[in-house]
Each structure stands twice: as C-alpha cells, then as structure tokens.
Amino acid sequence: MIEVVDVEQKKFLSILFKCCNVYSRIYQNKEGTAYVGRCPKCLKSVRILIGEGGTSARFFEVY
Q1: How many structural domains are present in the chain?
Q2: Domain housing 48
Q3: pLDDT, mean of each 10-residue run, the chain (63 residues)
Q4: Given CB 3.0 to 4.6 Å as the disulfide criterion, which of 48, 50, 52, 54 pairs with 35?
Q5: pLDDT given for residue 57 in this prediction
Q6: For residue 9, what pLDDT is reported?
Q7: In-domain check, residue 50
C-alpha cells in the first residue's frame, strides 16, 4: 500500500514577462506580504503586494 503525504504547495502567480515574451511563476515571500520573482531571461524583478481588496486573478502581464 502506498501512503500519500499531503505536502503544502507554495502559493504562486503566473506571469507573462512581456520584456522577453516568456511565462514564469513567482512565489509568495516568507512574510506572506507579496509575490516576488524575476524574468528567467533578463532577470527583471517584479513584486506584487498582497492586501485587502485585492484581486482573485492568478495570471498577470508584466511590462
């Protein structure tokens, strides 16, 4: 019998980096206050704050 272990998944947003026309995921920081990441090609950084009255959208474009 195989035992299934519930592993907590990291929260992420899907981002289209328009600078290089590539998709990537950015992940929530340790404090839970923002999603942070970089374009995988040119390393442009992005930070999306988490706050009250935000959106439920999970896909964004970054220019």
Answers
A1: 1
A2: 12-62
A3: 68 97 97 97 96 92 95
A4: 48
A5: 93
A6: 84
A7: yes
Q: Using alpha carbons, list the distances in angstroms from residue 8 to 5, 17, 57, 61, 63.
A: 10, 27, 21, 26, 31
Report residue 50 as tokens.
Answer: 């988490």
Residue 4 confidence (pLDDT): 64
Q: Is 3 inside any structural domain?
A: no
What value, to the nearest 5°, has the Cα angle with vertex 42 and ends 31 and 9? 35
C-alpha neighbours within 13 Å on the C-beta side of residue 60: 18
CA distances from 54 to 33, 41, 47, 48, 49 (A): 12, 28, 14, 11, 9
Distance CA 15, CA 62 (A): 7
How much is the pLDDT for 22?
A: 98
- pTM attached to this predicted model: 0.81
